[in-house]
Design a protein that fits this description.
Order of helices and strands: EHEEHHEHEEEEEEEEHH
Largest sheet: 6 strands, mixed
Bound molecules: glutamine
Number of helices: 6
Radius of gyration: 17 Å
Structural class: alpha/beta
Shape: globular
Strand order of the largest sheet: 2-1-3-4-12-11
Helix content: 25-40%
Length: about 240
């Protein structure tokens, strides 16, 4: 299929509330990497009270506990719809606070448990220590294998059932600082603690997500053309294995 006749739609969940440490950079990366190939992008910022439409890819960023509380209620109202979207192979990317709400619940240090939307079999409880710093993850599904980013969270996420991690930690604390894993994946739902923002420094992961979103929309695998990622991968490689 000729790339310039293709399109993907992106639903951005609650950007006015969950958008920490430049998470908007993920939307910019997905959009530009499509536009550079002539692929049309429909961008739909979704606010509190809005009806959530069907999209090929949904993104949700991170935020402090207070913003998570406000978003959790809104997300939970749309839980059945979003699970049905997951089961139609829509792509989801959640960063930190957004990732935590992809599970069954997030128990903050203070206050009531926030119910998640159970897109993946996982749960999060607040820990006493805040994990802040660079992270390197070794995946088994990307080329190059690594993902790099920055973490800043006190939540400890535990994966269960069929939920897989994004990979093994080479640097950083990841999901919970105990099991040596970072992030979560179930079907086309991806969650990670990597801020930074994540995708500008991991163009191979951005393209992986775009290809999944195109496959969801068109019902067939579509290999994206190569872009000149010399600068992006130079930045990526400069961060691999770097703690400070
Ligand atoms: N409030 C959550 C935590 O501290 C998420 C933080 C974030 O999104 N960076 O774990």
């Amino acid at each position: 299929m000729e790339e310039r006749n293709l399109k993907i739609s992106i639903g951005h969940l609650y950007p006015r509330l969950l958008n920490l440490y430049g998470d908007m950079g993920n939307i910019i990366t997905l959009t530009k990497r499509c536009e550079w190939r002539g692929i049309d992008v429909e961008y739909d910022p979704i606010g509190v009270g809005d009806r959530i439409k069907e999209h090929d890819l949904y993104f949700i960023g991170g935020g402090q506990d207070k913003q998570q509380q406000e978003v959790a209620g809104e997300l939970y109202k749309n839980k059945d719809f979003l699970i049905s979207e997951r089961d139609k192979n829509a792509v989801f990317l959640g960063i930190c606070g957004g990732y935590q709400l992809f599970g069954h619940y997030y128990q903050p240090f203070e206050g009531d448990k926030l119910l998640g939307i159970s897109l993946m079999d996982a749960y999060t409880v607040a820990g006493k220590k805040r994990f802040i710093g660079n992270v390197t993850v070794e995946t088994n599904f990307l080329t190059p294998l690594t993902l790099v980013g920055f973490e800043n969270h006190s939540g400890l996420t535990y994966l269960q059932g069929d939920t897989k991690s994004l990979g093994k930690l080479k640097v950083g604390n990841g999901n919970n600082g105990q099991d040596g894993m970072e992030g979560g994946r179930y079907k086309n739902v991806f969650g990670t603690y990597l801020h930074g923002s994540l995708l500008p420094k991991n163009p191979h992961f951005a393209d992986y997500l775009i290809e999944l979103a195109l496959e969801k929309r068109y019902g067939e695998k579509i290999k994206l053309s190569k872009l000149d990622d010399e600068l992006e991968l130079m930045t990526h490689n400069s961060l691999v294995g770097k703690a400070y």
